[in-house]
Specification:
single chain; eight-stranded antiparallel barrel; 9 strands; elongated
């Protein structure tokens, strides 16, 4: 065969496949971000459910009382009045101030006020004029059931004011 008639053959091609490397970085980063977001949501739910209810922003009314021997007494006995439906009030504000009304008549006449802080299940109150006091918080789980206020030789129980009492 002459060189003119000779069939030209293509050079031998190797059978190597070109491997395209798929980058796993974006997938790993996305998986990590999803895991971190899920952990943050779970932590928020767990932490949020463990936070005890606070006293601020709620109105409380006197509901019952007991004497130094822990015997139940009528509120009218404590206030030395003939009011059978008398209700004292206790209000805690978000700004760290409180108002307590324990005398019958016009609330403006016998309202005491001051500042407060909550330390666990104790409200540390400082009345205007410098008299300190402590009110005990009774809880049902994380929810506040009542607040106990010492009034002379009596213990007055304040409960959450119902909407129809406002």
């Amino acid at each position: 065969m002459s060189s003119k008639n000779k069939k030209k053959t293509a050079p031998a091609v190797r059978n190597n496949k070109v491997k395209k490397s798929v980058s796993l970085k974006p997938l790993i980063i996305a998986a990590v971000l999803v895991a971190v977001a899920a952990a943050a949501v779970v932590a928020t739910v767990i932490i949020g459910s463990n936070i005890p209810e606070q006293v601020a922003g709620t109105s409380w009314v006197s509901a019952s009382a007991s004497n130094s021997a822990d015997e139940a007494v009528e509120l009218s006995e404590i206030y030395n009045v003939y009011y059978s439906n008398y209700k004292g009030t206790l209000d805690f504000k978000d700004d760290g101030k409180f108002e307590l009304w324990l005398t019958p008549g016009d609330p403006a006449d016998g309202k005491h006020s001051g500042t407060y802080t909550v330390d666990g299940d104790v409200i540390k109150a400082d009345f205007e004029g410098g008299s300190p006091a402590e009110f005990k918080i009774e809880r049902d789980g994380k929810k506040i059931k009542s607040i106990l206020v010492n009034y002379g030789e009596y213990k007055v129980v304040f409960e959450r004011q119902k909407a129809d009492e406002k």
